[in-house]
Amino acid sequence: MSRKEIIAFAKNQGIFVALIGIFLYFSIFVGSFFTVENMLDIASQIAFIVLIAIGMTFVIISAGIDLSVGSIVGVAAVVMAILNEYHHFPVPAATLIALIAGTILGAVNGFSIVKFNVPPFISTLAMMTIARGIARSLAGNTKIFISSDISFYTNLASTGKWGVIPIVLIMLLFLVLFWILISKTRFGRYVYAVGGNEEAAKLSGISIGAVKLWVFTISAFLSSVVGVLLAYKFKNGNPEYGIMWELDAIAAVVVGGTSLFGGRGSVFRTFIGALLIGILDNGLLLMGKDQNTIYIIKGLVILGAVLIDQIKVG
Q: How is the chain split into domains, by residue range?
């Protein structure tokens, strides 16, 4: 193969080769890795990050970045718990309001970026601190425990019967729905166009502002979904939920091959990126590696993915 073909293969298929290679390595050398229980554990562990990373994929394809997703997780969890525990809202109503509250924060991100030309990094960095402050203030810097019986909803966000994990099914449902949105709709084509060449997209009649507003709103909505699911799972609204998860989500997107410069990527490959990182985390832990070593290896994997993205094919 020529150098050009090798680079093109690494860009397009490298993630799948790496995933298969890492999976086989741990399956062969770590006896407790390739079991049904551990495979289900990996799936459930990555589910929340995948949901956040789906929204992050939309943002990054549009040539943006969203650092506020982890904090919005905390806001949604706290709002849901407060409404149910202190104001006795039924879980569906508390959930709906929590989703709306978190999603509004994403719309504020998009509005400041579109209306006032604030760079996405700065706008979402500000929202990251604002939203975390809101979550902590609402909760009084403590967990809001849910005392009512929400066992049905708790089961949705944790393990179910017969080895079926509802949270994994929820993740897959959202993955399919948002894959259809980004891959099969006019809006999805607009997102790619804005990220690929904003000026050309504007000249072709695409409303750049509307696209940017929607991708940040989508990102916040999915983060809010994670927040309420965490409140279900642990039966509390913890204002500390989601801390640093924006980095895990960005890592999944980048490792999955979405370009940080925008215009290229897919939610399916983001799922593969999250799965690769999840398998790496799990396998290294089972091998007895300490957390610092795991951080170093994960960092090298992310750096390698970015370097491959930087290499020009031609």
A: 51-266
